[in-house]
TrEMBL record:
Organism: Novosphingobium aquiterrae
MF (Gene Ontology): oxidoreductase activity
Keyword annotations of the record: Oxidoreductase
Protein known as: NADPH:quinone oxidoreductase family protein
EC number: 1.-.-.-
Stretches assigned to the Enoyl reductase (ER) domain: 11-322
Entry superkingdom: Bacteria
CDD domains documented for this protein: QOR1
A Pfam family it matches: ADH_N
Length: 326
């Protein structure tokens, strides 16, 4: 089979290439899936450099999540050949076939294609874990979502709106402001540059935000500490901006807010019943047509470099999907 292999870590993707590999062999409890679509996530890019918290030893097949058709599974797994599923693992998605534990797969909702299904798991799972499971999101609250033009941020915007929140979406790129207004239904879109706290205060009537969802870090995190309402939560999702911020503990003390880390995958592994409930909640919303991942572009696996470089240049609005069969 064709697969995208990280043979060595490098800062410029030079350690990656398409390769011919043997078909993966599944063990008991695992499912063999023919991959129809696999979505690119920022951790996929970081793992090519050894900069993500999970550091697989090269060589490994890149890719966190996919959608496809079951080829083989245990009789008691709940899956049969031909079932359309989505899910994934820490690696292995950018290939024509993948093997994952049965618990890591979910049946695709009716009416959704493979590219959209491939974009459901990580982004919406992270959004639901952060905003609802950990953040306790309630209808009518104000939510500030950073990095909203990326897959994780845009999913959080959509989920928060569907659950009745008032959403302020941010982007660090002036060129993406209008694009984000077109593809999202956020109440407002602002630039996360400089002292954006004033814009947040104006939009909320001075109330500031009950939840801040931050996959960016760095200067954005620093200014976000000024945007959280008393008793609110600043959710640390990641560090796409590059710098891991620090905070003096007197700031959350005086302002009465919490800084909470969100590792959605680890949360689901440590609390499998909660992880299952989160997947089911996302599935229900998608099946009802309330979640519709925005796909920036769909490319054949042979054009993987174009996809990774576009993500590295922050060109993507939403998700980019690779199709191994093309």
């Amino acid at each position: 089979m064709k697969a995208l292999v990280v043979a060595s870590l490098s800062p410029d993707l030079s350690g990656m290439a398409l390769a011919d590999l043997p078909m993966p062999q599944r063990a008991a409890g695992e499912v063999l899936v023919k991959v129809r679509a696999a979505s690119l996530n920022f951790p996929d890019l970081l793992m090519t450099r050894g900069e993500y918290q999970f550091k697989p030893e090269p060589p490994f097949v890149s890719g966190l999540e996919f959608a496809g058709e079951v080829v083989a599974a245990d009789p008691d797994s709940g899956f049969t050949p031909g079932d359309q599923v989505y899910g994934g693992n820490k690696t292995g998605a950018f290939a024509e076939y993948a093997v994952v534990p049965a618990r890591a797969l979910t049946r695709m909702p009716h009416g959704i294609g493979f590219p959209a299904a491939a974009a459901l798991g990580a982004a919406y799972g992270t959004a639901y874990t952060g905003l609802v499971e950990i953040g306790g999101l309630q209808a009518g609250q104000w939510v500030l979502i950073h990095g909203a033009s990326g897959g994780v941020g845009l999913a959080a915007v959509e989920l928060a709106k569907r659950l009745g929140a008032h959403v302020i979406a941010t982007t660090g790129s002036p060129s993406k402001v209008e694009a984000l207004r077109r593809v999202s239904d956020a109440d407002a879109v602002i630039l996360a540059q400089g002292r954006f706290r004033d814009a947040v205060a104006d939009l909320t009537g001075g109330a500031l935000c009950d939840l801040v969802y931050d996959p960016v870090g760095g200067d954005v995190f620093d200014e976000s500490t000024r945007c959280v309402a008393f008793g609110g939560k600043l959710l640390v999702i990641g560090f796409a901006g590059g710098r891991i911020a620090e905070i003096s503990t007197n700031i959350p003390l005086i302002k009465g807010f919490s800084v909470v880390g969100v590792r959605a995958g680890e949360y689901a592994r440590r609390f499998p019943e909660r992880g299952k409930a989160i997947r089911e909640a996302v599935l229900t919303l998608a099946a009802d047509g309330r979640l519709n991942p925005h796909i920036d572009r769909v490319l054949p696996l042979s054009r993987w470099r174009e996809a990774f470089e576009a993500m590295d240049r922050r060109e993507i609005v939403g998700k980019v999907v690779l199709e191994p069969g093309t």
